[in-house]
Amino acid sequence: MLTVYGRASSSNVQAVMWGIAELGLDCERLDCGHDFGKTDSAEYRALNPFGLVPTLKDGDLVIWESCAILRYLAARYGDGGAFWPADPALRARVDMWAEWGKVNFSRDFTGPIFWARVRTAAKDRDEAALRRALDKFDGHLQHLQDQLQGRKYIMGDDFTLADISIGHVLFRYLDIDIPRVNRPIISDYYQRLKARPAYREHVMVSYESLRAKGAN
Fold first, then answer.
1. Neighbouring-strand partners of residue 30
2. Which candidate, 76, 91, 95, 104, has a CA 20 to 30 Å from the CA of 126?
3. Which domain holds residue 41?
4. Is residue 193 within 8 Å of 213, Cβ to Cβ?
5. What is d(CA 204, CA 114) in angstroms, rounded to the nearest whole number?
6. Cβ–Cβ under 8 Å, residues 133 and 108
7. Euclidean distance between the first and final Cα of the chain, in Å?
8. Do 128 and 151 belong together in one domain?
9. Of the candidates 52, 68, 130, which has an alpha carbon nearest to the alpha carbon of residue 102?
10. How many helices (H) and strands (E) does the chain have?
């Protein structure tokens, strides 16, 4: 059985758990990180020297970094189909969007927007910086909407690893109290993600334990 170390409220853990569920794999998740602690222990640092979550154990194999974990699972347990194709050219196209999701879409939301809005008390917020971050992220949303035009999922009719890399961000983006531009194509895409049981179970998770005192 797979073991994932990390708290359910971690967005990176959510991406991994969503992928595991979509692949139909059995998994045990052990809480650690944030209020649960444990990531600074010698035992955990032996698994992940950076003390971050998630970390995956599959037998004697240990992997950290969510994208590396997802690619390993897709290669080891997937069927080489649309989720993460065996064909190198098709796989590269999925990876291209998955990388953009991690390096741009997720990064430019999680710190500059989610942390600034939810994990920072109102009295300590830099509202000008938040507005700049929202403007930048809106550009990412426009790119996403352009890609989704005429498509059910990011790559077409089939759900892929790229949808996990990008889609796990949308729950928090659409749930927190921030101004948003109405984008019907993204809204429709989000409804399709919400229709997936694994998304509801592993991504649509309360983040109240992360909310700073005085953040509304």
1. 5
2. 104
3. 2-77
4. no
5. 15
6. yes
7. 40
8. yes
9. 68
10. 10, 4
Give dist(CA 151, CA 110) in Å, integer. 26
Lookup: tokens for 35: 């209020």
Per-residue pLDDT of the chain (216 residues; tens, 9 = 90+): 899 999 999 999 999 999 999 999 999 999 999 889 899 999 999 999 999 999 999 999 999 999 999 999 999 999 999 999 999 999 999 999 999 999 999 999 999 999 999 999 999 999 999 999 999 999 999 999 999 999 999 999 999 999 999 999 999 999 999 999 999 999 999 999 999 999 999 999 999 999 998 887
Structure tokens at 65: 């970094």
Domain boundary pick from 52, 77, 102: 77
Give the position of tokens 């005429």: 150
67 and 103 within one domain: no
Query: What's 118's domain CATH number?
Result: 1.20.1050.10
Structure tokens at 172: 């928090």
Is 144 part of a structural domain of the chain?
yes
Residue 171's Cβ-side half-sphere holds a number of Cα atoms within 13 Å equal to 25
Distance, in Å, from the CA atom of 34 to the CA atom of 207, rounded to the nearest integer, reads 12
